Amino acid sequence: MYHRWSRPFISTVLSTLLVGAQSVTAAPSNSTQPPREACGTIVNDPDGAFFFDATLVYECLTSVPFNPAVATRFLRYYNDTLSFHSTLSYLKDPPSTYQQPSVDLLGGLQSLQYAVNSGSFANQYEFEVALQLLLLNAHDDHLYLNAGILSAFSFGSPFDIVSLSVDGVETPKVYIASDVFESNAFTSYEPSAIKLINGQDATAYLETFAAGNVAGSVDPDTDWNRLMFSFAQDIQGFFNVFSGLTPFYPGETITIELENGTTFTERNLGIYFSQGPTGPLETGGDFYNFFVLGFLPASFDPNVDFADPTVVDDSPTTVPSEVVTPPPLSWNSPAYPEIPDVAQPDLGLIGGGVLSGYFLNSSSVSVLSIPSFDVFDDALSTAQTTVTEFIRRTQAAGLQRVVIDLQQNKGGQVLLAVNIFKQFFPNIEPFGGSRLRAHHATDVMGQAITDRFNQLSPSDSDFAILSPVEWVATTRIDAETNSSFASWSQFFGPVISTGDAFTRTQRFNFSNEIFVDSLIGNEGNFSVISTPSQKATPPWAPEDIIILTDGDCSSACALFVEMMHHEAGVRIVTVGGKPTTGPMQAVGGTRGARSFSTDILDNNINFARELLEGTSDADFLPNRTEALDIFVLDGSINLRDQVRRGETVPLQFAYEAANCRIYFTPQTIFNYTALWMHAADAIWTNPGLCVAGSTGYATSSKTNGSSIPPPVPSTPAFNIADHVTIDPDKSNSTVDVGDAGELAGDLLSGFCTRTGFRFRECREAQFDSSFMCKPILRCFGDTAVQLTAVTTCDNSRGSSCFTGFSDGHCVIEQIVPYIFPDGEVIDVGVGFCEPNQPSQCNSCGSIIGLTSGSSKFAPRQASRQSRVPVAGRGPTSPFTSPIRAPPAPVPNTGRAPSRAG
């Protein structure tokens, strides 16, 4: 049976987006709409729709003109950016057991420049696809670029899919997700599996589709899982790649043939992610000016273009209800038990909580669910207390074994991962070694900024700001000596490995309170046990704990698994993967130690240039503000590799198999209680439940190298030159950089540039009841106060004004009683989140300064927008703290929200 958009597969994400946009806006049937105006049709949709026909979106994208001079300047800028990416040499020449193709990133940029010189790109879309395809093949969640016209759109199938085995033993098949859900675990009827997609074998089609559209995974099994619907992803408000985060145009339609002979064809979707008011945007040229160059149209009028004039601000200034709705106590998801036994306060999609615990009393097993480490503000401290409470109550209940569920954990706060590990194993000091790529620019910056830091006293205001900065060596610990580095030069090395140079391995100094407080950005509300107590007794032995992953584990999640598995000896079960037998890697996302915002990198470079002014090193790199012509909404590189004690190969390139692999089944795909029991039984009761050939490959510090050698893939190198046309007679020609400068100067005449800030329009189709319209002081033209959609908030624990669109504070408008389930009543202040106010606006309305919080290391600019406009907990900004590892989104050419840290 096939049911388009059948519940629950209008997921949490889609149900929010479809409010006010109940149907997909299709291209005119007679194609009378000129393609050059397709962009205006989308952006100016009167209903504020988000879903459009994929072909209409493609017509818009391909109508955007290409300027080779601008592209040339950007490639030069981005080449300097990628020189800081830590894995360049290993990507070019990876170990034989690396499961993805090799790729030469810097060589790829050179090939793109040759293609630009050859006139290969007919439009901006072709250029951006080639660039994003190159970055996608680095298979690193920490490497992404959210810029240009591709930052405005993604594509998707009109239905979700899942992959499962009918009995846990047979090879999995692919099904329409809603069919499986409505079959009630195959008890009401047995759905028919998908046989063909667009005339190709379903498995072969999806493997090819994953290879060309899934970014960030070091393992093809994780690529496969990222195509599938998952409730562990849905509760966090994210699309999967197949049905919402496809980066490149997949074609006009998708045709499905089921095994029972049923065939149907549906139109693919294009999803528009608004970046704020565009003004009177109509043509592809307008789209280029706004999304590529960051210019507002000359005719932009904030009084007309900012807000929908048909919407009247009738939002109440006070909360009408006398009782505040209690914070959520569960995920309200069919896959999770209805009520957790332990729950972090404010648990839920729009709350600050993410952790929950469940007692499976019939089996003496408890489950700690950690779908993310990406928490902030009060939720950071409640996360650690929730784990403490989970351990206490599990022991009090006499439950002897623990399953830690990390499905869909994209990472987040590194120190939260360390804290949770230390709660389970207080007697082990985790290694956590990492290193930078040691090239000339790194050396110049580090020497200058470390010297500046060493001149400060702890009482100086900049001391705490600079303490955790990447370019300060003397606050880090030398992994070899276990003492602080004495100087930058001692830290820098370099150490040569695989034809490249790296710094000496560093570790965090958890005993340095200023460093930890600055790193976590939450002074006084968080703790990391810095010194292991050999007398401390872990609450459980490692053999009584297992970790469950679906491979989609990145960044801070990867570090947590490394500590739990490699250092403590906890076993891992991985679920899903391609429809094959054999092992599967436990961590398929990035294992890098530091996602680093390109915006912060630019500010760091410019800061170092200022410190070096008047010296021969001052121009070690061009001024980053002057070098960047295009508007970058967000971007990141992997600044530091994670490496093990005494090793040189980054964990990103190691083969890390789980102890056991299991398939999803009809009974477990949408019932996580059954899934947890299945994983527990596979380890502790019936090893025969493990997929054939999947055991014996895992390694840890406890295995003494006795594992089966990892599989060696036959994956040819990825070469972007194979995907673009290069004229050998023109490939060595150059474009005068001055041409781009003159072009930008001409375009600036009569145009205003966009600021980095993003605010939500007061249009009912674009936000739900968790927002309200308020007059906010803004920088848009001459009018400073604009109606702006801001989130509601209260002064209870877990409520945060960090929405992902702006920093700010909670303006309390009313005090109301809050009634707890046990009858206790407290007074709670409720109101709205007011962003930090601009202190000065230029003639175009761009923000020049802020009233507070601005620095060269933490510029108060917009965080990467959530790819889905849902209220509450947005993606954490890479600009909140100079050192805080920003989450990297579900990788979709760098455009999706990844929660990697």
Automatic annotation (TrEMBL):
Residues 154-271 form the CPAF-like PDZ domain. InterPro entries: ClpP/crotonase-like_dom_sf, PDZ_CPAF-rel, S41A_metabolite_peptidase, Tail-specific_protease. It holds the Pfam family PDZ_CPAF_rel. The keyword Signal applies. SUPFAM superfamilies: ClpP/crotonase. One of its GO terms (molecular function) is serine-type peptidase activity. This is Uncharacterized protein. It comes from Xylaria multiplex. Residues 855-901 are annotated as: Disordered. Residues 1-26 form the signal peptide. GO terms for biological process: proteolysis. Residues 366-582 form the Tail specific protease domain. Keywords: Signal.
